[in-house]
Amino acid sequence: MEHPLIIAGPCSAESREQLRHIASQLSDIPDITMIRAGVWKPRTRPGGFEGLGEPALGWMQELQAEYGIPFCCEVARPEHIELCVQHNISNVWLGARTTANPFMVEELSEALRESGIQVMVKNPMNPDVRLWLGAIERLQQCGITVSAAIHRGFSMYDNRGYRNDPLWEVPMEMRRLAPELPLLCDPSHIAGRADLVPSVAQAAMQLGFDGLMVEVHPHPTCALTDAQQQLTPSTLAELISSLPKPTANQPAAPDLSALRSRIDELDHEMLRLLAERMDVSRRMSALKRDAGMSVYQPKRWEAVLADRLQQAEGLSLDQAFVKEILEKIHGESVRVQMES
Ligand code: PEP
Ligand code: MN
């Protein structure tokens, strides 16, 4: 395992003193790859702190030369890129709201062409891996180096206790589609709460992410943005030291072949059962039609769901997981009956 890439710093650059303070604290933590600081802040509602713009870039330029650690910030408009070039900021990221908009990504790609700036791309607000990959491809088509994809979670109707639901299967799909691209996790925007950040970060590292982007503030409670989720530098240092250590000699891979063949058998069996289940649905469809019954029977579906969830509980299966699978199966059963 390689050393994880660690990008840390405040949600927003708030003053020269705050940036100097955090740069000095972070420079004492080994393995900090880059310092982040938001210069232009996308706010959900108007009236909040929207970032300090160009003066903040000036302080970042000064401090990166002084501490020898590169700074990075979010860019959302072509003017931002011009200012980054002027201030020697050569690492930027596209935020979730920008990645979601192909017109903006196109415009930024043009502005970044030949700038020498490396770009990280956060996932879009919605769990659409193709939209995320599309933004990366648009940049790459303009000859821009995309240095990482950053997973910051997704804004869902039910975020299951997170600020942004991690839906880990989405970044895992990104890894499959772009295996060479470093994948970072932003546990701060996923968790939304400082106390939850370490467990999200650990989960990401267990899943094989290449590193983290973590919000850190010298005095989190006084932060002008995202006060609840920022760590202190000492909590970050603890978090980093609790991550699995890189090993010079990889331990021998365990022999998984027997367990893997059992998984193969079980998957094949599940698919065979699903095919049989859809066959039964098809047979039922004609009977329902002849009897003038509608395909979807809400009472029956309710009873099926309750019964299976009860069984799942006895089998110690996660209720939300089983419910999601059953909803998918039921949806497909309805579709198959409509088509028959
Ligand atoms: C941020 O990193 O401060 C930020 C606004 O992130 P996101 O685009 O993930 O919401
Ligand atoms: Mn933030």
Question: Could you explain how this protein is built, in words?
Answer:
It is a single chain. The chain is an alpha/beta fold and 340 residues long. It is 50% helix and 11% strand. It contains 13 helices and 8 strands. The protein has helices spanning 16-27, 54-67, 78-86, 96-99, 102-112, 129-141, 169-177, 187-191, 197-206, 233-242, 257-290, 298-314, 319-339, and strands spanning 5-9, 32-36, 71-74, 91-94, 118-122, 146-151, 183-185, 211-215. Strands 1-2-3-4-5-6-7-8 form an 8-stranded parallel barrel, surrounded by 4 helices. Helix 1 (16-27) packs parallel to helix 2 (54-67). The chain is elongated, with a radius of gyration of 24 Å. The structure holds phosphoenolpyruvate and manganese (II) ion. The site of manganese (II) ion has 4 residues, from loops. Manganese (II) ion is lined by residues 11, 215, 225-226.
Write the layout of secondary structure elements.
Blueprint: E1 5-9, H1 16-27, E2 32-36, H2 54-67, E3 71-74, H3 78-86, E4 91-94, H4 96-99, H5 102-112, E5 118-122, H6 129-141, E6 146-151, H7 169-177, E7 183-185, H8 187-191, H9 197-206, E8 211-215, H10 233-242, H11 257-290, H12 298-314, H13 319-339
Parallel strand pairs: 1-2, 1-8, 2-3, 3-4, 4-5, 5-6, 6-7, 7-8
Helix pairs in contact: 1-2, 3-5, 5-6, 6-7, 11-13, 12-13
